[in-house]
């Protein structure tokens, strides 16, 4: 694919996998990556380090067609310097927008400034590109299945606002962001990709992100905490990062994905339950299964007593874990009809978590949960 891809979020967990695929699979493509930094040199250095981290000694082969664009989602015009913005508007043929804050604990206005403003900035850049060249760039927008918030029914790919509530500012601002993006799907060429919970690579287990499902499994495996606070029958939908990146890369090359929205999720048939995750963890770490209690019982009977006695590291552990707790209590199921139809020809079937669970947690053990990263494969 010739042209220039403007990618945001390339330094992140999913973004680096996307960057890798676009550079390796589209040899004529130039890439401009939005990178935060203290100045241009710092952004350049971050990009060089990123390429080194992704490609190891082979990074030099990709450096010539990759450049850093210093910027920030939360600033006007994505914080991009005027000259660079004008150049980008003339050159860009494709945008992949993944930059977002994935923190669950940001105050709503801060989360909005990162997530909603950034998406608006990308839409404005597409308008500027159309004004400059007469042609709007294609946009592949990365949303999340969890715009479904606290729903517990089957969420469809066509649905957005169904009166749901939100469990944190991340879910709410990703919904607000997607609302803006959907509003422009009629006049800009946009595809929306909604991953569920992304875990490590299904072949190597590699991950740079150890939150959501990793967190309770880590504290259980290390013996810091023996309770699983949740509902064993709650569905929990996880997908490996290599499959998500392959799917987005493939769909981004298909005209017929424009105007669409795709749940990049395991879906009702392949998603497991919290109880199954606990069994898999128990088998892998050769430990008795965690004791399961419901969040209601935890908050009413156990937490008040703990709060009186807990201090320091233990207090922090519980506070961190509390952010993820809702995802072990109840979740929607994600319909994947559109995703399966769109990916059928590519043979990109979502892998079953039973097949790669051991790879995920082998990687965690080998890297001491990310503290001793392995060199690039
Ligand atoms: N991980 C999941 O389970 C999951 C599930 C569903 C959807 N998603 C979506 O996938 C996308 C990527 O998530 P991720 O897990 O890869 O997150 P991540 O590892 O935290 O990466 C986030 C990326 O966004 C960039 N970013 C954050 N705030 C920015 C700002 N103000 N300006 C410019 N860049 C900014 C980060 O840059 P720095 O390096 O400068 O921090 C980083 O490159 C997000 O849109 C997220 O909503 C993720």
Written overview of the protein:
This protein has a single domain (3-209, 237-271, 332-353), classed as 3-Layer(aba) Sandwich (Rossmann fold). Helix content is 46%, strand content 16%. The chain contains 15 helices and 15 strands. β4 (92-97), α5 and β5 (138-142) form a beta-alpha-beta unit. α1 packs across α8, α4 (82-91) crosses α5 and α5 packs parallel to α6 (169-183). The two termini are 26 Å apart. The model has no long low-confidence stretch (mean pLDDT 94). Bound molecules: NADP nicotinamide-adenine-dinucleotide phosphate (NAP). Residues 8-15, 34, 36, 72-74, 98-102, 114, 142, 144, 174, 195, 197-198, 209 line the site of NADP nicotinamide-adenine-dinucleotide phosphate.
Descriptive key words:
377 residues; alpha/beta; Rossmann fold; seven-stranded parallel beta sheet; two-stranded parallel ribbon; 46% helix; 16% strand; binds NADP nicotinamide-adenine-dinucleotide phosphate
Task: Describe the structure in brief.
This protein is α/β, with parallel strands linked by helices.
